[in-house]
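dumping this here before i forget
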Amino acid sequence: MSAETEGFLPYLASVYRDLTQSGARRTAESLTRLLDTSRWAFRRLWSSHRSLVLRLVALSLARGLMPAALALVMRGLINAIVEASQLKTGDISPLLPWLGLGLACAIVLALAELLSTYAVGRLVDELDIEVPSEILAHAAKLDVAYFDDSSNQDVIQRAQRDVSNNFAQFVVTTLSVLSSAILIVSLAAVVVLIEPLAILMVPLTLPHMLFQWYTSRRYYSSEFKRAAKRRWSEYFISLLTNRESVAEVKLLRLAPLLSTRFRALLTEFRDENRKRYLDRLTGRSISTVISTIAVYVLFGNVVYKVLQADLTVGDTAAFAAAALRLRDGLESVSTASGRLLELTLYISDLRTFLSVEPRVPSDHGLDVPNFAGGVEFRNVTFAYPGTDAPVLSNVSFDIRPGETIAIVGKNGAGKSTLVKLIARFYDPNEGSILVDGVDTRELSLDSLHRATAFVFQTFIRFEATAGENLAYADWQRLVDNRDETARVAKRAGVSGLIEAMPESYDTMLGRRFGRHDLSGGQWQQLAIARALARDAALVILDEPASNLDAEAEFEIFTRFRELARGRTTLLISHRFSTVSMADRIIVIDEGRLAESGTHEALMARKGIYAKLYELQRRQLGESGASET
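structure:
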């Protein structure tokens, strides 16, 4: 006995136990889920593609009815042939109506198949646009905190994996089941009319249908668990192919290790799939053998009745054609119903993701058209979702409109978290943050984000033209306005950088789609200029010049401070030559507000800030560097 057979026998035993012990409950759950998801899916389709759905339903009816009609026509034609041959008149006119009906049914069936393929293709194309677009639109509404949770990343992975194809296959399979059901009813009427015992063919397929449902649930459960592993496989691919990582991967000679781990995941998927194929092959083979034996036993009985003159020769031909097609239809419904259940489970993943509500809708709350830029923290404590240790503890301070504030502290002190709270990427666990005297939880996110310009530590290097890299700051105003974009570039001091590029503002930046790339410092200058392009009351710079030398940073911030005059500016930087230019400095230490004041006052205090300042000064002196 082979290893595969030895492994499959215990599996069949587990299937039997599962079907007999909890089959009724699981079947009821499957049917409930199938019907619920089907209603949800077809409501969506009906609302946006009504004409296509109606067309597909009509074609499914035609495809379901025509085989039975052809069987009846064949019965009439053969009986007419037998009768004409007995008369020996040579007159074929009695056969012509049957031949005409057969031709018409055959043409209708062929056209229904072709038109169904055409309509399904159109529907798939529509869904390829509609469903991914809806996923992206919904993702854009969700809070930043949602994307921090790795389990939510699995939800997103499952929702978008082959989603358009799954949705389209769901529609096609549903219509196939509908067509097959009509075919079964119509053909069953024909064969039962000829041989009443043929009704036994229907219950013979029930075990196969239950088996298909059972395996579909198992397959989906396996796919559900694969989400994180698929993300790992995609990560290994990105490490080995992305230009940002390929150099270090080569230097560390990690390719063999990463390739081995990638291959191990795919091997695991392959082995699971192989078992899946064997399951389906075995189940369908058993069902096919049993149903085929049943058809031929019944056909033998029909032949016997013909010999006894109880039935006609036409009955024999009609029964043979209809019974074999009925067997195929019953197997098709069993297989398709299992596939349909599996697809509903996949679509339920999409439904689960689309049902996630943002913590705060972007248009919820007060819409303030013009902010002055005052900020106040009142006893703010915050821990990231899923963690217990607070990043900020009982922090309180205020910033006056138009004031420039520098935030300093050691790495991990909570500086970046503090400014992310101002932009309301997260809400504090305790305390409140006020902008112009209004709690940010009472403001609409749209209005708060319109009033905020933010240069992140890991800012985006947009694969776009140089002009678009600036225009994205306020794309509705700038993306189609080259003159205004050029004025913004000149005002931000990057016009010389852009105009020196091969195609000036039309130069495609980045190596993924273009051929021109910038240095880290040049990208950073564009990011800072992008922040200045926004008409924002609050400007947040989180390590905005980490890729620049001290002199370049000093020059940029000097110009930036002039351009941002009148705006409230928060600057996070490790370079104290820049920090010292701020109106006031806030020192964060281990998540708490340690000190606050001007550069001179904090130096005189000889506290944390003064120690950090002196430490950096000595380091620069020892390295022979100097700050402006």
